[in-house]
């Protein structure tokens, strides 16, 4: 295992391992309790049963039955490392939205207490530029082909593909990414040693060798229905945006998309034949305005923003961009007036446009020479 | 021929026939000139060359070479009738947006001076509830199947399908409508006696027998490239909304959609496989926000509004509606507060939402019991 902070003590890791195992995620009361008392003191208090009622509810069932040392030792024996918020590798930029979400009252959105990881990559480094690419398990050939193309194109453009390693769209997106490079992260709804789904054990091994397989569940934890929904928030938070390639009328991918939306991440969806049940969910999201329609990875990058890469200019994009921007772009351009530098969030408040819309318009304004990202934020240009 | 107004004099028809033939549509200066001087006096002044420069430019080439009586007589011999704004059958409600458009400076948007018509239906009656259903000539099998289904579903729900009788999507939409009833109108970019395109001569005959074939070009006029664009404004104006079933990156259907949008009509587009060139234009319109994504005729009716029929409730629609409405619907619901009755246009101004959006949200609010259409316009409900 690699601890990238020399001052980090083994006792801290043991305490985090204990706290990670003692409550079923998400555990918002326990997360707040740790914030108030510090990791090691919180672990002692939990073990002693000296905690407020809300924490008791979360930890009562397991507090006397789990042992941090043992869990941590066994994980290391199996090549699994523990990643904790005190390490530099912890992707605070990605996960901070989850604690904000708790504060503003989005239920079940606590940050993970720790993550169990297989793989050589740095989670923070690979998710610095990343896209959650998700979709239905019951995907069509069309959907799987596209998911692989999106994975390949995004990874080729320097973005990490974050997904859930499920059959169908998830697997195809991971495979596409692996075909273009090493940047893919799979978040599991079970222990990272569980090889679930069974048919993806080879895929998971490959991801663990070249990217990262991650879970907030301690090794050995079985998948459960509710864990998929809880896990989805980590996929949604880990991407700078979420793309749904195919989804039925009710699917887990819809849950990830809703979560990404609630966290302020732009949501995108790929259309398909209206005669295909596998695209119904995507069409619903686009139709309702929750998702932006995207037809290829270059359009995803256009929505997410440059972030180091310049968006692909495919020619055909030009008239479309001009067509659509008119009203909203003007509104946003107005909101930039008189500001020495504003964040997307400020601009959303000022303009009254949805944050998602602001995020997608800013790069377009920038390309049109109407806005520039300065040291203090976005600045207007005439 | 059927003149539905006993007091209408033959001289008026002859004068309109002359004015219809003397200028290449659209002829905004001539239309304004007729408005100022009256039909018969305007015809005399044009014939005498006693007109302002702007009118001269429009009529110079033909003013001595066309004869109203002869054109009208020959048309009647061929079973073609002349429809003029002085008749009760003239669809003022549909076309008034074209003269507004001239006033607000949308180029080339003049009302037609007269229409040449084959068919038994009343243009005003059949376009009271109508949807422009258009798309590419180079359509895929997927597109043609859907166009027929949209035509069938819309006609079955009491809406007239207005289109351009072209190969591909247009033809399929007309055929679908004919399969469900008699309500379909074809606007041609040539004389209504020209049977263009040739492969659709039988389709055109059927439409003329059961619906209407209409043109502002005098009988015998050949199709020309620019006439398709000019004709498109009549299709756009004649529908309460426009649906694009399939369109390439640059297509005439895109022009009709842009025109419908400029005229304040809701624009809708049907998605398809992102791998299909025939859906690229539809995806561009949806992505840019110009068009609302629709997957079936019931969603078209939902966007256009009840207008006599209750929108189809397909069950699957429920969660989607709830999902998407949140922010915009609230904004619109707020805009309704304290009003004794407001039009969609007023609400668009008050809420800052695009008129198209307001038009699509109002029926949804109504169905949710949050708004009701009273005598003076839309009223809020708690």
From TrEMBL, chains A, B:
| Residue ranges of domain Smf/DprA SLOG in the record | 104-303
Give start and end of each DprA winged helix domain. 319-371
Which InterPro entries does UniProt cross-reference here? DprA, DprA_WH, DrpA_SLOG, WH-like_DNA-bd_sf
* PANTHER family xrefs: PROTEIN SMF
Family the entry assigns:
Belongs to the DprA/Smf family.
For biological process, the GO terms are: DNA-mediated transformation
Which intervals of the chain are annotated as region Disordered?
305-326
Q: List, alphabetically, the Pfam families matched.
A: DNA_processg_A (PF02481), WHD_DprA (PF17782)
Q: What is this protein called?
A: DNA processing protein
Query: What domain of life does the native source organism fall in?
Result: Bacteria
């Amino acid at each position: 295992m690699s601890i990238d902070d020399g001052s980090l003590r083994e006792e801290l890791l043991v305490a985090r391992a204990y706290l990670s195992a003692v409550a079923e995620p998400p555990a918002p009361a326990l997360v707040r309790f740790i914030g108030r008392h510090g990791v090691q003191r919180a672990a002692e208090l939990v073990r002693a049963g000296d905690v407020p009622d809300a924490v008791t509810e979360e930890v009562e069932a397991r507090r006397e039955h789990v042992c941090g040392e043992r869990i941590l030792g066994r994980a290391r024996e199996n090549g699994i490392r523990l990643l904790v918020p005190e390490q530099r590798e912890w992707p605070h930029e990605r996960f901070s939205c989850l604690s904000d979400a708790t504060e503003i009252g989005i239920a079940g959105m606590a940050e993970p207490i720790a993550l169990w990881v297989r793989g050589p990559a740095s989670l923070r480094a690979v998710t610095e530029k990343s896209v959650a690419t998700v979709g239905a398990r019951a995907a069509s050939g069309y959907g799987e082909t596209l998911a692989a193309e999106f994975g390949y194109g995004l990874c080729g453009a320097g973005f990490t593909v974050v997904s859930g390693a499920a059959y169908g769209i998830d697997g195809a997106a991971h495979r596409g990414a692996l075909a273009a490079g090493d940047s893919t992260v799979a978040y599991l709804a079970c222990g990272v040693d569980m090889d679930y789904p069974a048919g993806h054990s080879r895929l998971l091994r490959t991801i663990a060798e070249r990217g990262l397989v991650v879970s907030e569940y301690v090794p050995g934890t079985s998948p459960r229905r509710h864990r998929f929904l809880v896990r989805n928030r980590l996929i949604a938070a880990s991407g700078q945006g979420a793309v749904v390639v195919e989804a039925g009328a009710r699917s887990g991918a819809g849950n990830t998309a809703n979560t990404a939306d609630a966290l302020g991440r732009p949501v995108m969806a790929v259309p398909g034949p209206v005669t295909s049940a596998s695209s119904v969910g995507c069409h619903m999201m686009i139709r309702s305005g929750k998702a932006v329609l995207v037809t290829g990875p270059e359009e995803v990058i256009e929505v997410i923003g440059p972030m180091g890469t310049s968006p692909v200019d495919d020619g055909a994009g030009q008239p479309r961009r001009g067509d659509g921007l008119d009203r909203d772009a003007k509104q946003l351009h107005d909101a930039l007036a008189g500001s020495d530098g504003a964040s997307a969030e400020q601009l959303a408040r000022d303009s009254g446009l949805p944050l998602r819309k602001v995020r997608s318009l800013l790069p377009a304004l920038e390309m049109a020479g109407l806005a520039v990202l300065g040291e203090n934020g976005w600045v207007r240009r005439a």
